[in-house]
Amino acid sequence: MKPIQVGVLGIGTVGTGVFEVLRRNQEEIRHRAGRGIEIVAVSRRDRARAREIVGDSARVVEDPRDIVRNPGIDIVVELIGGCTLARELVLEAIAAGKHVVTANKALLAVHGTEIFEAAHKKGVMVAFEAAVAGGIPIIKALREGLTANSIQWLAGIINGTTNFILSEMRDKGLDFDVVLKEAQRLGYAEADPTFDIEGVDAAHKATLMSAIAFGIPVQFDKAYVEGITKLGARDIRYAEQLGYRIKLLGIAKRRGGTGATSGEVSGIELRVHPSLVPAKRLIANVEGAMNAVMVQGDAVGTTLYYGKGAGSEPTASAVIADLVDIARLHTADPGHRVPHLAFQPDAVLSNGGDLPVLPMAETVTSYYLRLRVADQAGVLAKVTGLLAEAGISIDAVLQREADEVAGEGATQTDVIILTHDTREGAIDGVIAQMQALPTVLAPIVRIRKEELA
Amino acid sequence: MKPIQVGVLGIGTVGTGVFEVLRRNQEEIRHRAGRGIEIVAVSRRDRARAREIVGDSARVVEDPRDIVRNPGIDIVVELIGGCTLARELVLEAIAAGKHVVTANKALLAVHGTEIFEAAHKKGVMVAFEAAVAGGIPIIKALREGLTANSIQWLAGIINGTTNFILSEMRDKGLDFDVVLKEAQRLGYAEADPTFDIEGVDAAHKATLMSAIAFGIPVQFDKAYVEGITKLGARDIRYAEQLGYRIKLLGIAKRRGGTGATSGEVSGIELRVHPSLVPAKRLIANVEGAMNAVMVQGDAVGTTLYYGKGAGSEPTASAVIADLVDIARLHTADPGHRVPHLAFQPDAVLSNGGDLPVLPMAETVTSYYLRLRVADQAGVLAKVTGLLAEAGISIDAVLQREADEVAGEGATQTDVIILTHDTREGAIDGVIAQMQALPTVLAPIVRIRKEELA
């Protein structure tokens, strides 16, 4: 069979990986796919740099539109990033009847509904294994491997930069700002790290996973997003003493539905935030820039997928897996393909109605609260009394020895409370009441806690 | 589209899971697959019991041949087990043009070549996700998710019974025999546990994974198989002190090939045996009856897949994923399907020649040796001298305090040596020489060690 013809838009770090791996493993890949996969054109503003990467093996163009409009190209790999030009190019490629492979999580999390609808109408595939957790085949596991299951929840370490920072904070007992600078020096964090450290990148990925796990439309705008910038070494240490690690998790969880008692809220929790995780869980031991995703299905139970979440060749591994899938199904009846969001489009529409993304106040989870309090009799009773009044039960309390505050003479202490499951809306109210107590001397630190059992 | 018609041969524990999950999640599964999947007939010698499971929803027959020969059935799910009747039924189903889903690792590891060839000729699929690591979609990850990679090695905890026993031995400091009895009482080990504890079950699974990872024929007869029956609590404790856990691993590793220096052996190591694994690796922390498989690819780096390796519904999760794959591709051109052993059949034949399964003496790994020696001056020098003469370097030595042997007056001690990588053939020779020393008082314990880095 004729090799499938591929054009790469924006050949940079990932594109170079795709080119190198396709060349190095071309024979194995052809023997698996049953046909060759050839990169015949690449685009990059700096054409000379692109020429250095691909040599004479492919056309090099400055304008990516020259690839999108080239009738000889079967699949377009979009590696430009961002949401403006990438969106235009992807839609134009689809309109031209080309299949698309993209690693662009932001594009799909924000414009996925438009893009998947256009692709469905045109009968082409848009594949995005590389958009979530790099080389880990998590999209394939969710869409195909676990297809028998009603997915109950998933929780993932899906941003390598923040996991590297949290690992370093714990190992070295340092605060966020110090470690961020080190991560930037080592190349683990970008010069402008906002998207990573504020949780936005993880939220893009969690949005995509929530859509394919539950068959709902992508709804990035409804995701709750909280980063790691406010975490201190002190909370990591206290968590450790209580048997927990702190990880930035992207979580998507089904609530209610079949078997729900009447009146219970039905929908999907979609949230990214730092979380206490029991230290004995495998995912708590995922260190450095590695990624891992846990998926809980009603039949399979707990599963976990681990690997590199970024980098040139790990990401290329996912891009090429998509190319092979498309090469295989390219000429087949579209009905034989796996639906973009795992469920048939009409089911996605109706699920979207039945399973709305819930407001954060409706989230049910447990909490770590740290209060800086005056070391006086009765403070703990007052604080725990407020929880009791709200019907929130306590799992554990850790009270540190009082320490003198320099220059003030008075003594202060940290009280740490772990709660059992409760509604976020309920704990918000109690935190506001606690904060108003004269004996609570600093802003209360609240970190969510996930047992992942 | 008309629901796909499924017949189940041998509806027992797994079959019940398949029936229950298909019923419970029928709507979600139909929305994913794009068509319904219906079990229309089941077989079991005890028809009354089968009737209790399926009620009136399916025909119940005593003779599985009534299903294989039923022209209305599209897919046969073989859950009878064993190699005789199961082989006949699977071949007959293929000859009748039916697709087959099986959880039978023994059948495929031993008769896979014959079965896959028959299926290829007839243009039907034989799917076997459930044959390896239960609900973990490891077959899909290897065949599709990592298709860009030249796989370097894989190593898995792929037998829950032995992992449960090893976890208990470590937790409680007990010897093998005691824990086996407990495992049998709790239902984690069968009345005749031979296939599990001797490593045969793990070797069946490792054989299947080696075939799809490297595109070679299944060659169970060439696998090295060693179980856990000779492990003592003492070795688990010493391993712990040196920073290792002991796990029963199924390993398949590529040696030589592209980039090999001339004269280096090329081929595949295929082996199951207890292994020391660094305690900090995720896989070392997989406890109880859980399974996990690590896969190292040249592009993706290290990945890991974790979940339940057995049980009614986890296995059913894998069977149903295969049913959905087949339902999807059933009417498609066979060229669009994923090849049985991940590579096109002609490539499997030629890989089989280029990459033979190596004899165990050619394995290269490192070793834990425990010697029971007389507590005399010069013993350690003598023992380590033998290693040096053979060119085997030492990574670590642990010498325990001497203990009195009751009633003899003389003192004995344990010497533990960790080696660096060497050929199995070379260490065999050294162990024989050590064993012949008069100061070595008991059979030497040798356990292989895998760094998995």
Describe the structure.
Chains A, B: Belongs to the homoserine dehydrogenase family. With 453 residues, chain A is α/β, with parallel strands linked by helices. Chain A has three domains: 4-135 and 313-351, Rossmann fold (3-Layer(aba) Sandwich), CATH 3.40.50; 142-308, 2-Layer Sandwich (Dihydrodipicolinate Reductase, domain 2), CATH 3.30.360.10; 362-449, ACT domain (Alpha-Beta Plaits). Chain A is 38% helix and 24% strand. Chain A is built from 16 helices and 18 strands. In chain A, strands 7, 8, 9, 10, 11, 12, 13, 14, 15, 16, 17 and 18 form a twelve-stranded mixed beta sheet that branches. A six-stranded parallel beta sheet of chain A has the order 3-2-1-4-5-6, with helices on both faces. The longest helix of chain A has 18 residues, at 105-122. Chain A is elongated and about 80 Å long. The first copy, chain A, starts with a strand and ends with a strand. The relative contact order of chain A is 0.13. The mean pLDDT of chain A is 95. Chains A and B meet through helix 1, helix 2, helix 7, strand 12 and helix 13 of A and helix 1, helix 2, helix 7, strand 12 and helix 13 of B.
